[in-house]
Amino acid sequence: MDPDYLRYESFENLYVETPLKWGLLCFNQAHQKREVLKLTTDIDEILSLLKKGWEKHAGRNQYILRSPEKVLCDLSEREINPTDNLDLLIDYYTFLKNINLASLIREIKRKNKHIKDLEIIPLTNHIFTSEVRVAASDQRIDVVPGLIFEYYLKTKGIKNVVTNKKLPNKLSAMDIFVKNFYQEIRRYYRKIGCELVQNPEIPEMDFWDKFRGEYDIYVFIPKSAIKYCLSFLNRVGVEYLNKVCLWEYHTGNDTNKELVIFKKNICDKRVLVVDRSFSSYTLTHLSQKIKENGAEIVDRLAIFPKSQAAILNSEYCFFWHSLLKSQKVDLSGEWALRLFKKVNHSI
């Protein structure tokens, strides 16, 4: 396929790096990360890929499908990791960064017949990030992080690893007004042909107390930050309902760029914009738009930032379990490893 055609279909966002047998390894300019994609108009192929766990996005004329992905390790986000042992996590992150991950994956496939025919590729990045991620040709990728962690433990001779992770609450455990708020959002999305999960996980985030009364309006980008919006409301209370705005704003390969739920007058208002941030591209562009619409102050909060850019282009960031002022974060070199040690009191 002509690489320029994918760029055209994705609104100048996706660039082909390497053709694979099972897709195209591409660079997503908006999110500054690699992905495996397919471009098609064949309904049978689309339905087949959706059953295998691929995600569908609308291009200009065709559909762009993204392969399933899994994070092996992430220093910015606690719940996503295979262990709570902080020293072990640092060593595992370093192990994954330094090893030939493609060779390790081949070895694991050879030893596990149920994934022998599964196509798997590391999604290495040209920038320092807080995470290590892989992509695969179907949903059997779900077992891959566990198999790689087991390989690491055996290689290091480590036994009896115990995790004490505190799992996020379910929506069912939230205050009734938060449940009703979420069901209203689901009804809105249903009307435009989208479906949100019925009972999402809601993380406990005590830092929301620090933002009480600081802003007139709290804008959440719902595709990636809806659960943080629910966490916010559950923490600060029902009186903040009329201060929340959901603003769907995407700069990637999707024709449906924008959707505002609970629209607010932002002129001369103090606004906090919240997003789970990889590159800060969406966060930055939406903040700029809010400024152009007359907001007095627009601050940005990057939840679990994955890159230097995500921190650099925000006023606040929430990393691991700590709320930080972004301008005070040292982003040189192996910033993620250094920041992880700092917020965990120099392990």
Description of the structure:
- A 7-stranded mixed sheet has the order 13-12-11-14-15-16-17.
- Helix 7 links the parallel strand 11 and strand 12.
- 32% of the residues lie in helices and 24% in strands.
- It has helices spanning 3-9, 43-51, 86-98, 101-111, 144-156, 176-191, 222-236, 281-292, 308-312, 335-343, and strands spanning 14-20, 23-28, 33-40, 55-58, 63-66, 69-74, 120-122, 131-136, 169-170, 201-202, 217-220, 244-249, 258-261, 270-276, 297-303, 316-319, 322-325.
- It is built from 10 helices and 17 strands.
- With 347 residues, it is of the alpha+beta class.
In terms of per-residue confidence, which ranges show pLDDT below 50 for 5 or more consecutive residues?
A: none
| Terminal Cα span | 49 Å
Strand order of the largest sheet: 13-12-11-14-15-16-17
- Structural category is alpha+beta
Strand tally is 17
| Number of helices, where a helix is a run of at least 4 consecutive DSSP H or I residues | 10
The shape is globular
Query: How big is the Rg?
Result: 21 Å
The chain-level mean pLDDT equals 90
Topology as a string of helices (H) and strands (E): HEEEHEEEHHEEHEHEEHEEEHEHEEH
Helix content: 25-40%
Q: Quick one: biggest sheet?
A: 7 strands, mixed
- Sheet-strand content, in percent, reads 15-25%
